[in-house]
Amino acid sequence: MLLRTDPFRDFDRIMAQAFGSSTGTSTRPAVMPMDAWREGDTFVLEFDLPGVHADAIDIDVERNVLTVRAERPGRNGDWELLASERTRGAYSRQLVLGENLDLDRLEAAYADGVLRLTVPVAEKARPRKIEVRRADDAQPAAIES
């Protein structure tokens, strides 16, 4: 149902730590932490976006690729930075979702810094019961000679 498409995330984190770029000012957008699970006939995704305003979140779906973008602004004005452990700037996450999800009915809600996306499983992908008829219940076709 879900394919991770950012193999460079850990590499970027290590490089940022090694070269002191923990402010999120690199050219690649920071990746937002995510949880994903299935609840019955619904696929749920939650992204952590603390400090991001709802109007700064952009969600796009093209075919079966879901892209979530957000931005947490930096601080402006006369201030002195004492610690910088929270990334600022652009966040991006792209997921390839299975064709068994109904992306036309995707819903998004944002509360307390968590973006929750719910996607119903497509009707054609839901489990269904198949009735088995007994062979002797079938009417044989008349044979004419």
Strand order of the largest sheet: 1-6-5-4
Helicity level: under 10%
What's the total number of strands?
Answer: 8
Assigned CATH architecture of the domain at 2-17 and 32-74 and 86-127: Sandwich
Oligomer: single chain
* CATH top level label of the domain at 2-17 and 32-74 and 86-127: Mainly Beta
What structural class results from the helix and strand content?
A: mainly beta
Output mean pLDDT.
81
What letter string, H or E per element, gives the SSE order? EHEEEEEEE
Largest sheet: 4 strands, antiparallel
Shape: elongated
Q: Tally the helices.
A: 1
Q: List low-confidence stretches.
A: 22-26
Q: Any idea what the radius of gyration is?
A: 24 Å
Determine the strand fraction and express it as a percent band: 35-45%
CATH fold type of the domain at 2-17 and 32-74 and 86-127 = Immunoglobulin-like
Separation, N- and C-terminal Cα atoms = 56 Å
Domain SHSP: 25-135
InterPro entries: A-crystallin/Hsp20_dom, HSP20-like_chaperone, Small_HSP
Protein name: HSP20 family protein
Family: Belongs to the small heat shock protein (HSP20) family.
Features:
single chain; 145 residues; mainly beta; Immunoglobulin-like; four-stranded antiparallel sheet; 1 helix; elongated; Small_HSP; HSP20 family protein; A-crystallin/Hsp20_dom; HSP20-like_chaperone
Description:
- The chain is mainly beta.
- It has a domain at 2-17 and 32-74 and 86-127: Immunoglobulin-like (Sandwich), CATH 2.60.40.
- Helices cover 8% and strands 35% of the residues.
- It is built from 1 helix and 8 strands, in the order E-H-E-E-E-E-E-E-E.
- The strands form 2 sheets. The chain has a 4-stranded antiparallel sheet, with no helix packed on it. A 4-stranded antiparallel sheet has the order 2-3-8-7, with no helix packed on it.
- A hairpin with a 2-residue loop joins strand 4 and strand 5.
- The radius of gyration is 24 Å and the shape is elongated.
- 11% of the residues are buried.
- Mean pLDDT is 81; it is low at 22-26.
